[in-house]
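Data deposition worksheet. Section B asks for the primary sequence of the deposited chain exactly as it was used as input, without tags or linkers unless they were present during the calculation. Section C holds the resulting structure in token form. Section D is free text for depositor observations; keep each observation to a single sentence. Incomplete worksheets are returned to the depositor.
Section A, Depositor: J.P.
Section B:
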Amino acid sequence: MTVRTLTIAAILMASQFAFAQIKTLIDAVETSPANIILPGDTSGMVTFRPCSGQCDKDYKRVSLSAETRFTVDGKAVKYDDFRRDFAIIKRAELSYALVSYDTETNTVISIQLAR
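Section C:
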């Protein structure tokens, strides 16, 4: 092969990548804790609205699992402690939550709360 043939082949390969579909595998949504409804245990589903404050966006439902990680102010906590802190933090005016979930399995990877 000549250098010219290799260059053309490289351009064709690069153009195939340029038209490839980008797929989101993990979505991380910042929201207000007031827009989150937690289940009683980690076998349930979290319902949240992806916005801070009042909005017209649709609610999203994602499953919790035994592997879901819970964080409050940067510290990892167990789900029972998370729910207790959540009840307090969701009333704080400047609080926020970050919900990260796998878009293919619709399973929560982590929920982070901060005040």
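Section D:
The mean pLDDT is 86.
The longest helix spans residues 3-18.
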